[in-house]
Write a structure and sequence with these properties.
globular; mainly alpha; 210 residues
C-alpha cells in the first residue's frame, strides 16, 4: 500500500504540471462550465487508458524506442495544437465583427463530445504523455509486487486518479472564473489568450527533441 501511496504523490506532481490538456480543462471550465469540462477530462483519461494498455501489453517500450513513431506522433500533436489554437484565435476575430449585432453574451456552447474528442487527441498525440507511461511509471515497478503487466495496470489506475484530481482542479478553477459572468469581450480575450498559448506550446513541442 505504501508503494502505491508514494507513487500517487509523485503522479499528482506530474499531473498538475501545466500543459496543453490542463490548459484546455481550465479553458473549458471558464467557457463551457464544469459538466462539459469533466466530459472533456474523460476524453483525456480515455487516451491515457489506451497508453496504459499498450504499455501493459509490451507495446510501450517498442513505441518509445521507435524514433520514427515518436516523430510522427510529435508532429501530429504539433499540427493539432496549431489547428485548435488557430481556430480559437480565428473565432475571436470573427466574433469581433458580430458583437455589435449580437450584443454582449457568453461563449458559444460546444458539444460535450467535441470537447472530449479534443482532449483525447491532444493527449494521445503528446510524446511526453507516452514517456510518462514508458519511463516515469516503470521506475516504480518492483518485482516484489507481482508481474509487470499487473503492476502497470495498478500504477496506471493510480495515475488516472491523480490525473483526474489535477484535471478537475483546473476545471474547477475555470468554473469559478465563469461564475463571475464574464462579458463577451472578456470571454473573447480568454479564447484569444488560450489560442496563443496553445500555438506557443505547439512551437515548444516542435522544437523539443522528444
Amino acid at each position: 500500500m505504501t508503494w502505491a501511496v508514494v507513487f500517487f504523490g509523485a503522479a499528482v506532481l506530474v499531473a498538475f504540471t501545466p500543459g496543453a490538456n490542463n490548459l484546455l480543462g481550465l479553458h473549458h471550465g471558464m467557457t463551457q462550465g464544469a459538466w462539459k469540462g469533466l466530459v472533456g477530462l474523460l476524453g483525456r483519461l480515455a487516451a491515457f487508458t489506451v497508453l496504459i494498455a499498450a504499455v501493459a501489453a509490451g507495446l510501450g517500450q517498442l513505441l518509445a524506442a521507435s524514433e520514427l513513431a515518436l516523430t510522427v506522433i510529435k508532429w501530429a500533436g504539433v499540427a493539432y495544437l496549431v489547428w485548435i489554437g488557430g481556430r480559437l484565435l480565428w473565432s475571436t476575430f470573427r466574433g469581433e465583427r458580430t458583437t455589435a449585432v449580437s450584443g454582449p453574451q457568453g461563449a458559444e456552447p460546444v458539444p460535450a463530445l467535441r470537447i472530449a474528442r479534443k482532449e483525447f487527441v491532444v493527449a494521445i498525440t503528446n510524446p511526453k504523455a507516452i514517456l510518462i507511461f514508458t519511463a516515469f511509471v516503470p521506475q516504480f515497478i518492483d518485482a516484489a509486487h507481482g508481474s509487470f503487466p499487473a503492476q502497470i495496470a495498478i500504477l496506471g489506475a493510480v495515475y488516472l486518479l491523480a490525473e483526474f484530481v489535477a484535471g478537475a482542479t483546473y476545471i474547477g478553477a475555470g468554473t469559478l472564473v465563469k461564475s463571475l459572468r464574464l462579458s463577451r469581450r472578456a470571454t473573447r480575450n480568454v479564447d484569444r489568450g488560450t489560442g496563443v498559448v496553445l500555438i506557443g506550446m505547439a512551437g515548444a513541442l516542435a522544437a523539443s527533441s522528444s
